[in-house]
Amino acid sequence: MNSPIKKEEKSTKEASHFTGYHFQFDVNGHHFEIKASANSGKESVWLDGKLVSEHHTIRRRSCHKIKVDNKLYEIEFYVAKLLTGEVHCSLIEDGTHVATKKQALSENKIVTIAFTVAGGIVGFAVGFTVVTYFAGKLTGVDIL
Known about the structure:
The structure is a single chain. The protein is α+β, with helices and mostly antiparallel strands. The chain contains one helix and nine strands. It has one helix at about 110-140; strands at about 5-10, 20-25, 30-35, 40-45, 50-55, 60-70, 70-80, 85-95, 95-105. It has a five-stranded mixed sheet, with no helix packed on it. A four-stranded antiparallel sheet has the order 2-3-4-5, with no helix packed on it. It starts with 6 loop residues before the first strand and ends in a 5-residue tail after the last helix. Keywords: Membrane, Transmembrane, Transmembrane helix.
């Protein structure tokens, strides 16, 4: 039986807006693979090649709980820095921290800024359209 090693490290793989985040942990003969989208909030946890947990979230912190061999494993996601997209992924076994890995979106600041600006423009356009549509319906005045 492998002894869990308590540590914090930067993951060797870099995250991107296109491929998302990808973390791996090996503990007690089990291989955890965690994938998360940088855009949609979808998170998937794979244990020994089988999908065991999946959900969407828009929060800065989320947790997946998985029971294996009478042990409770928790996979915690924490978005540490919104602007750079830095995410911390922690593995906890029966309440004891095993390891934390970190990934941030591409170091290319231009790509990060471009996605942020594009998201803001799209969000503004959609919000403006929805508000003006419903404001026109409620007041009976055609705003556009």
